[in-house]
Amino acid sequence: MTPQIPDVVLQRWEISPVSYLGGRLNQHWLVEHRHSRLVVRGYSDGAFPHIGYELEVLARLDEAGWPVPTAVEEPIQVDGRTWGLFKFLPGTCHTSNRPEERRARGRLLAELHQTTASLTRRGQRRGFGLSDEVIGDPGLIDSIRKYERRRPSEGHIMRWHVDQAAQVFDRLDLDEAVTTVLHGDFTPWNLLYEGENLTGVLDFEATHLNYRVADFANSWRGYQDEVIEGYEEVCKLSDLDWELLMPVYWAWMFIGVKKSIETSLEENAALPDFEWQIRHLLRREGLTGRFADPYPK
Hints:
Largest sheet: 5 strands, antiparallel
CATH architecture of the largest domain: Alpha-Beta Complex
CATH class of the largest domain: Alpha Beta
Structural class: alpha+beta
Helix content: 40-55%
CATH superfamily of the largest domain: Aminoglycoside phosphotransferase (APH), C-terminal lobe
Number of strands: 9
Number of domains: 2
Distance between the termini: 45 Å
Order of helices and strands: HEEEHEEHHHHEEEEHHHHHH
């Protein structure tokens, strides 16, 4: 059954639904308001806290000339769920993901970081942390140990990579690392084009302050090396950035893992297999093969 926008939301903003656009966590609908197209987002409960941070980042990027879906109304709460109304952006995403398109996406990400670097004064988004804070959370280690007792193979892979990342973070001077406000999911399906013209940068739901190489987690994905090559055509990475590449990438794989394990244990439910996370942790090709120690099987 297709999800529906509550009547009170439709009436409040005087909008009519056109089509359901989908969404993995947050849900989206194309709507009309006085013959203009807009997009409604229904936020997933608690998935991305501090929505105001995201809206402020969008507003600042819009002022800088980036085509982003800024809010046209203040968010509202209906039945315990947050709803937002946003500008509609035209265009379609590139689906081929060829090497030259990956390289162009890397250049575009570097240009975006040149803008978001000025937003770091905003500080950290509530509910988020730097990559070393994710890895250094004692609760994460405790949860993975519990998980390992139930699923030894998967648990050992996860614990080994947490330990490896922690060792790197401990020996580096992280105060010297470049931080910026990340996009969070700089993938082909979040970039819209009309011809060769960029018309939209979507999905800032995970935007937060972090080491700049953390934005490679979902854009590079451990194997699309052309993304990083393109990035370096605009912004050269430092030696410290390169040392952070793998531990920061691995840290991204552990976002939400503690909560997922603890919730499963509390509810006496089946533990997740973390197939996606483990597949990424075990990547050893191209740059991952160059910068990551092999996992001891």
